[in-house]
Amino acid sequence: MNKEMKRSFRIFLLKILAVVFVLCMCYFLYAFVYRAKTELPTKAVVTNRGAAVYTLRGQKQMLSQKEAFSYFAFDGREKEKEYGTYVIPGLKNIRTLLTEKGATPAMCTSMTPQGLAVTDDYVLVSAYCSTQKHNSVIYVIDKEKHNFIKEIILPGQPHVGGLAYDPEHKILWYSSNINGIAQAVSIKMDTIEAYDYDDSHLPVDTFQTVSLYGIVRDSFMTFYEGCLYVGCFEKYNESVIARYGVDADGNLINTMDEELGMDFEMAVPLDYSTISEQVQGIAFYNDKLLISHSFGILPSRLVFYEQSDKRLYVNENSARTYRFPERLEQIVVEGDNLYVMFESCAYAYRASSVNIVDRVLKLSLPKMEAYDEEESLFFLSE
Questions:
Q1: Are 215 and 147 in contact (CB under 8 A)?
Q2: According to a count of CB atoms within 10 Å of the terminal CB, is the N or C end of the chain lower?
Q3: Could you tell me if 131 and 111 are in contact, meaning their C-beta atoms sit under 8 angstroms apart?
Q4: What is the pLDDT of residue 374?
């Protein structure tokens, strides 16, 4: 090959690389920027009930590539309705309100699921509008029949990164903030059950709104043994979980302590626990604390920790770690089941996610604890 041919070949390669680079940049801008800021138009007038991406068969087939995860989620659930899964509704379109115009009915096509709670009768999923045009919502799903019941419109646009259910007082908590101050907001289950969007076109009535002392952001939460646990998401640094007390009526205990620099009432933590970075949800199971970690397109992690008086739950102290599909959000323990939810099904993230999960799944905790990856490789491949 003479010099002229080599030169022509190099120019050809550079042109190919330039085209590939431009195409990659175009896809990146579309998948990560455009979809996060844009809503699809819709002629729908009601909240969609069907799955956003997969049929049940399609979801199982896609997750079959994740052998261990598929085993935890689907093995032995043949007799359960929908293999124990719950379709996340409202991902294509949902009835809500146009925030800037107050009580103006609107349809949103960019809801992103965040929080998850489970009661005796319902599976509850919270979501926020990724384009920041519409009020945040909670989907109410019938736990036994697995069908969508209704949408609950929340006041304003909280990120609703966490839901927490107090079974004794039948109160649902959700995470919020105002003027940069972390807050916990509660709604009575009686209020949720009586709420009807068609009657009022107004947000649901809340029960208590409490500012939280000692935590930068209210990113996720859970309720356990009479206390509300609230955590803060940090991308690259260790963070904390704060534990707050609840009184006999189900109210978060408020106080004003000038020595702590307060000039209005806030809830003060009973104690703190240290956690690793990128936490999206926590749950308690027997003597263990379960923590979900997720950030961007990287694989998610579910980490088991032994509960400790030192309250130090960082990576080096983990008892067990599992790799899950990307964009894992809140987790909830009920009995021996771990309910998990992913935000990869949201319109803003579908184009940038390899593994899209558009259902709430139930994982078997006994199977997870008994699972040994090396010993199970042959078993799972049969």
A1: no
A2: C
A3: no
A4: 45
